[in-house]
Amino acid sequence: MNFRQLQTFLEIIRLGSFAAAANNLNATQSTVSARIQELESELGVALFDRSQRKIAVTSKGRELVSYAERALQLHDEILHHITPRQMLSGIVRVGVAELVAMTWLPAFVATVHERYPHISLELDISLTAPLRARMLAGDLDVVLLPGEIADPALVVHPLGMVAFRWMAGAGMDLPDHVLSAQDLTRLRVLSLGENSVHYSTILSLLDRGSSAQRPDLCNSMTVIATLMIANTGISVLPPACYGDDIAAGRLRVLETICDPAPVPFVAAYKKRRLSGLHELIAATAAEVSTFATAEDTASG
């Protein structure tokens, strides 16, 4: 019995097929089948019922799952604590919110490459809900995203806070006073998709003005800013990320009575997955993040 066999066994269970496991492990399907056959031969039991069109885990296979996870966790801890970090290797799939990608993601990637030259990153830029769902499903190892997370099955590293303000293009025709929630509901509002913290934040602000408006949706904050510069609507954006546009007069920060609260960002990963590399990646993200601390946001 070896760790590769146990890893293959768990990947088949997680992904539901030998073919999917082979693809994820960069192995041939015959290699994956051979590993399982060797493991079954050594244990003297069948781990999968192959009589059905879709493979099913046997009772002994289900019993093996917890042992396999514990064995691989111990293997991971040995590598993490004993192997010099320059020698650690593997692929870490990282889900990234767009705002992270717009700001300190290049510094994060450069730091990982410098410290862990044999670790490869697979980056997936998406909205909050899909990133979290894919992490919970095991398709992503670590996620860097907005919102509070209180889940005992996850390890969470705070990445800081981001202040958002209502903003508009310089040529947008707006009332000449501090804008109320009712004023905002009369304007065209742009938002990230419904699966984002951005969308839920905007809806809560519009609800203060008893608005039935459905914001125009776009899956890119960068594109939303471009649309705003073209005076097609207003939105909430982080001024710290658009300082050049504000200084150049392309965007302006609006004075309102209903600015959003600062948004926390976190790095998170599942506790039960092999987590040594994931912890290193999450901790590096927390170290490199340029987002403000809660204390800085409060004092500001």
Automatic annotation (TrEMBL):
Which Pfam families does the entry mention?
HTH_1, LysR_substrate
Which GO molecular function entries does the Swiss-Prot or TrEMBL record give? DNA-binding transcription factor activity; transcription cis-regulatory region binding
Which InterPro entries does the record match to this protein? LysR_HTH_N (IPR000847), LysR_subst-bd (IPR005119), WH-like_DNA-bd_sf (IPR036388), WH_DNA-bd_sf (IPR036390)
Which organism does this sequence originate in?
Answer: Xanthobacter flavus
Q: Which residues form the HTH lysR-type domain?
A: 1-58
Return the similarity comment. Belongs to the LysR transcriptional regulatory family.
What name has this protein been given in UniProt? DNA-binding transcriptional LysR family regulator
Q: Which UniProt keywords apply?
A: DNA-binding, Transcription, Transcription regulation
Give the PANTHER family listed for this entry.
Answer: HTH-TYPE TRANSCRIPTIONAL REGULATOR (PTHR30126), TRANSCRIPTIONAL REGULATORY PROTEIN (PTHR30126:SF77)
